[in-house]
Amino acid sequence: VQLDLDVSRRGDWVVLSVRGDLDLATAPALRQRVASLVADGERRVALDLGALDFLDSVGLGMVVACLKRVRHVDGELFVASDEDRIRRVFELTGLADAVGLVSSVDERVGEAR
Amino acid sequence: MTGIVELEIPARPDYLSLARLVVAAAASIEPSFRDERIDDLRIAVSEATTNAIEAHADLSGDDRIVIRCDLGDDRIEVEVRDRGPGFDPADVVPPPDITAPNRLEVERGLGLPLMRVLADEAEIRSSPDGTAVRLVVYHTPASS
To answer: Which of A57, A54, A41, A109 lies closest to A80, judged by CA?
Structure first.
């Protein structure tokens, strides 16, 4: 079971790139990483799911949990993906707007480059 | 092409990706199965198998889940069976409406609705001895 989490920086946003499958087995690792970013003082988190292979409702729920974790400290989090199979899960559950789904990190923070 | 493929896995989260892999590979044997439909199938199977794994969460021992694929000419039928304590599908509280202000309060409970949207048929039979979820996905969308 593989989930790769890479952290990079774009302006005042920290970009967390998620690769692999986000499901019951791997979702806790995402929660942990976002919690540690918040603990390190990060307040603007971009969740890049552009290279994610698979997302189900447990992974989706974890994305929502991460969003709430960041908002709890008055931070911001958005989700980026241009993969139809990933976007579809957000759209079918009506959560696309709630998580601020955009096609790419650039679409939201391009100006900070 | 028709045939039966059966997989038995330990009721543990780290076997979830194997369940998806095998079902998707079995479906791919039929070239007319569209990729988008196989994506739908992978998610629906993941939801059913996740529920089965979680049904065993409080049980000890070497619990196993059986995933049986029946490959038909125009569809795949997948049954996911567990030996957990069972539940009444009617008791499952539906998530809030997608426009509800409390929408984000839901982190779980999206699995059954998602499974029902993605599969062409989804049937849950549950008893105190276990639960069987039967999913049917047609090679092409039923509506087209």
So the answer is: A109
